[in-house]
Amino acid sequence: MSLPTTAPAGPGSGPGPVPTEFDTESIVTTVEKRVVARLERWRREELDDHVLQLVERRLEEETERRSWRRGTEVF
After folding, report:
1. What is the pLDDT of residues 12-68, one digit of tens each?
2. What residues does 43 pair with on adjacent strands?
3. CA-CA to 58 of 20 to 30 Å: which in 21, 27, 34, 45?
4. Exposed / middle / buried, residue 65 (Cβ in 10 Å: 0-12, 13-18, 19+)
5. Which segments carry the region annotation Disordered (predicted)?
6. Phi-psi region of 67 (alpha: psi -120 to 50; beta: other; left: phi over 0)
7. Which residues pair with 27 in a beta bridge?
8. Are 7 and 14 in contact (CB under 8 A)?
9. CA 29 to CA 43: how far, in whole Å?
10. What gap in Å lies between CA 22 and CA 37, rounded to an integer?
């Protein structure tokens, strides 16, 4: 039994043939390449900045905490 390669004519039917087979391997390869490229770009550009911001914030918090501990005031 073979499947039809074109859609039946009628209102609302799309123009052109209906594919009976999908090349899933090429689709997967294309998507994988795009995802990997996006992750690499994110690691290069955004992750480094985010980590630096976290480190700077933690250093500021630690410096403030230590300055409070050095003080002689009673709270």
Report:
1. 555 555 454 678 888 999 999 999 999 888 888 887 788 889 999 999 999 888 887
2. none
3. 45
4. exposed
5. 1-25
6. alpha
7. none
8. yes
9. 21
10. 24
